[in-house]
Specification:
Distance between the termini: 21 Å
CATH topology of the largest domain: Metallo-beta-lactamase, Chain A
Shape: globular
CATH architecture of the largest domain: 4-Layer Sandwich
Strand content: 25-35%
Number of strands: 17
Bound molecules: zinc ion
Helix content: 10-25%
Number of helices: 10
């Protein structure tokens, strides 16, 4: 699974960071989580085609997470999209979009399939079962949890080579469970597979001042993408009003529940991208690593991560062109 960050600033954009948007891609298929203003400009500089977008999941209805959605829908319509688009979010998502669509006479060329986030969400995307976990914010906000439905099988190539099986279509037949006869011997797939990987599990959080709400889902999970709007000292100065998290708060929860890897995003515009005078985003990483012993990654616009079949997150070259 690929994660491509399209916007990583909280509240307002900066010269280098757009407001929130995260694409998740598996092959050519992809979905979008949150769609702040300007996300469609970012998409133009990415390898992602709106034609193949399967679903948009909105964590909450604050503008920096949703103001880009009407424009994106309009553009997809002008491109002649026919495939239905699944829209997942708080109940008010439909109430937000319907008047905009009517008042601006947006005649969509494709149907919208609304699904309400909540405990009853019944959804499968990109080969994963999707759940919604309610968070704590000034407005109803959700995290989306993803659990892989069927982890891919990996053949034990070394064992197959030992009996002389060559590369080629025979390996594909064996992987698909078809009957394969080699040198007069019927090969049983179960005898030539590596131990099955555990299903991947990861969560993408919306705005939230209580990371512990994710503790149960994140117990031993592979990855959490979560906001870290502030350094903890700044979080204390700002006070509880904005209802965001500090890097320390997220890291402490991650450590307590045995999470494997953490990506922080949604940084306050007060933090510079590079070290100079004052605080910079690197300080957020330093703070998180003091409280979480696993790998910590900082998101930036153009950041590209790959979560492999074994649940290891690898940083990839920026997708931004
Ligand atoms: Zn936000």
């Amino acid at each position: 699974m690929d994660f491509l960050f399209l916007g990583t600033s909280s509240g307002t954009p900066t010269r280098t960071r757009n407001v929130t948007g995260l694409a998740m891609r598996s092959g050519r298929r992809w979905i979008l989580i949150d769609c702040g203003e300007g996300i469609q400009y970012r998409l133009m500089h990415s390898p992602l085609s709106p034609v193949h977008l399967e679903a948009v999941l909105i964590t909450h209805l604050h503008g920096d997470h949703v103001y880009g959605l009407p424009g994106l829908l309009g553009s997809m319509s002008m491109l002649g999209r026919k495939m239905p688009l699944v829209l997942v979010g708080p109940a008010e998502l439909e109430a937000f979009l319907k008047p905009i669509i009517e008042l601006t006479q947006l005649r969509l060329s494709f149907p919208l399939l609304f699904k309400q986030a909540g405990p009853d969400l019944d959804l499968e995307l990109l080969g994963h079962k999707v759940s919604a976990i309610e968070l704590s914010h000034r407005i109803q906000s959700f995290a989306y949890g993803f659990t892989e439905k069927s982890p891919p099988l990996h053949l034990n190539i070394a064992k197959l080579k030992q009996i002389g099986v060559p590369d080629g279509p025979i390996l594909g037949q064996l992987k698909r469970g078809e009957t394969v006869v080699w040198n007069g011997q019927a090969l049983n797939r179960a005898d030539y597979c590596l131990p099955q990987c555990a299903p991947l599990r990861f969560a993408i959080g919306g705005d939230n001042d209580q990371p512990q709400r994710l503790a149960e889902f994140c117990q031993g999970a592979d990855l959490l993408v979560h906001e870290a709007t502030y350094l903890h000292a700044d979080w204390q100065k700002v006070g509880p009003g904005p209802m965001h998290s500090s890097a320390q708060m997220v890291a402490e929860m991650a450590q307590a529940c045995g999470l494997r890897q953490l990506v922080l995003t949604h940084f306050s515009p007060r933090y510079a991208d590079s070290k100079g005078q004052g605080s910079w985003v690197g300080d957020l990483k330093s703070e998180a690593t003091q409280h979480f012993s696993g790998p910590v990654f900082l998101a930036f616009d153009g950041a590209h991560f790959d979560l492999d079949a074994y649940g290891n997150l690898q940083s990839q070259p920026s997708w931004l062109t």
